Model the fold of this input.
Amino acid sequence: MAQAEIGLIGLGVMGSNLALNIAEKGNKIAVFNRTVERTHEFVEEAGALKDNIVPCETIEEFVAAIRPPRPIIIMIKAGDPVDQQMELLRPHLEKNDIMIDAGNANFRDTMRRFDALKDSGLTFIGMGVSGGEEGARHGPSIMVGGTEDSWKRVEKVLTSIAAKYNGEPCVAWLGENGAGHFVKTIHNGIEYADMQMIAEIYGILRDGLKMSATEIGEVFATWNMGRLNSYLIEITAKVLEAADPIGGKPIVDMILDKAGQKGTGKWSVIEAQNMGVPATAIEAAVAARSLSSLKGEREAAEKILGLPAVAPLSVSDKTAFIKDLESALLAAKIGAYAQGFAVMAAASKEFNWNLPMPTIAKIWRAGCIIRSQFLDEITSAFTKAPDAANLIVTPAFADMVKETDGSLRRVVSAAVLAGLPVPALASALGYFDSYRRGRGTANIIQAQRDFFGAHGFDRIDGTDSHHGPWGSGLGAGA
Ligand code: 6PG
Done:
């Protein structure tokens, strides 16, 4: 029997779906799972795809079944289990074999794993995979980081299984070591912002305009046919229109308002802060999730403080206001994506990755959770203006910001006056307002720093005088 083209360890939900996708696209795949029963169960479930699957009961058998140099996908829980699995696998591997971590790893772990294998003859790929269960099975977006040679070994298989946008595969080699997992982390940071902004708009419709879940679902379904067309808007409409099998009410009204998080959103913000890149809308989204989880504290605070004592949202023209909400969401989305891409641009320099921005936008157009036609516009903006300092100053996006930021301002103002929380929308607006203002207010901060700590400042006239006239006993550490 011909050897398998690739191997996969870990037949959990994501691993089995990825393995079935690989087999379905005509690639022979060897599979191994810690518990042998699961391997047998998986092969039984594979139906006709069984012919392309080589089930293995031992690591020796598994390694022998794969064509060298062997690419081996490890699809298990992120963190220590990956290191343990690599340790178990390592003694069985040969020169140029490639261990591929396809989980949601912290890119710093990926860098460490990549470096640890540097002189061993073995190599490592950190591969971000987005699209959930469905994506893994029928076409995910795949972000690859590793050596170019190891990418070449897996390129054909990965291209065959990736989602396609107008026939173009949503997979790319993005750079060395941690590049793939870093880009996946930023994908998730943007995903958090997209979701939070949708939730805030939902809040305005539900608590401001007092619309039912079904009515709000119709609004999102309409928006999905316009410029906001995207997977997240599509599923938002669907979840709002779904009825609870127990009781028949809209299911969203029965779901506890306490959101979980596994860490990738938080990592994106930590890395943005590490590099001094403002990613305020993403930060607001991560913080909003954390705040959502303080359900008990929020309920207690409502009893003590009450809801804000303000006039309820009053809208004279509901149709026009809903149009404004649509444009406001688009404007805020631009802010979040601009921030995500700015973080990647900084990381690209810091880690010498040379991240290809138009390609990243391209491989996010299909397969992943943030997929949308909007990403096609980003691809084109970065292709035309590769050296732009920020997405919002590319000609196409500058026009979009100018066209939509008035709506964002009206919506944020109306929500704030009505006491409705819109932290991510307001952060995006604050970002635009700060980023586009040539003369800001940090002169006062520089003066304060010099006053209490003699930290010095630069002058706008270039004069070589770097301290203020604070007087003796006041400045320089007084
Ligand atoms: C994807 C998703 C996925 C992520 C889940 C849950 O791109 O397919 O980002 O990787 O694990 O969405 O993430 P949280 O639990 O942090 O919301």
Summary: The longest helix spans residues 318-350.
